[in-house]
Amino acid sequence: MKTFNGFNGPLQKEHFNENYLESNRFPTATFTGHIIEEVDFTKDGTYNVRVKGKFTIHGVQQERILQGDLVVKNNIIKMTCIFTVFLSEHDIKIPRVVHEKLASEIKVEMQAEFVKK
Fold this sequence. Notes:
The chain has a five-stranded antiparallel β-sheet with strand order 1-2-3-4-5, with no helix packed on it. It has one helix at 10-20; strands spanning 30-35, 45-57, 60-73, 76-86, 105-114. It is mostly beta strands. The protein has one domain (28-114): Lipocalin, CATH 2.40.128. It has one helix and five strands. 9% of the residues lie in helices and 46% in strands.
C-alpha cells in the first residue's frame, strides 16, 4: 500500500498512509476474480478483457468488474488494468480540515502475472 504515488510531498504521503489508509493495519490490497471473456491461452497475443471479482482495500471488500489488457506470450500471462477507487466505498475517511488537499478518489494502476494451477 505504501507504493501509492501522486502526493505533493513525502509528509503528505506519510500522513495518508498512517492516518487515512492505515497501511500498517491494512498492508495490502487484493483482487480475486475471473476473466469474463473466452481467451485462448495457447495462442500468443494481446486481448482486451473484463475481469469480475472482489477488490479489497482498507479491509473493505467491493465487487468490481475491471477492464484491461491481457498479454499471452510464451505461456506467460500478464494483465494491466487502470481503475478508480472511491475512498468512501472502502471506509477511508478524510477529515474536513484536509479534504481539499486529498482527492476523494484514487487512480490505481495494476499489473499482474498469472500462474496456472
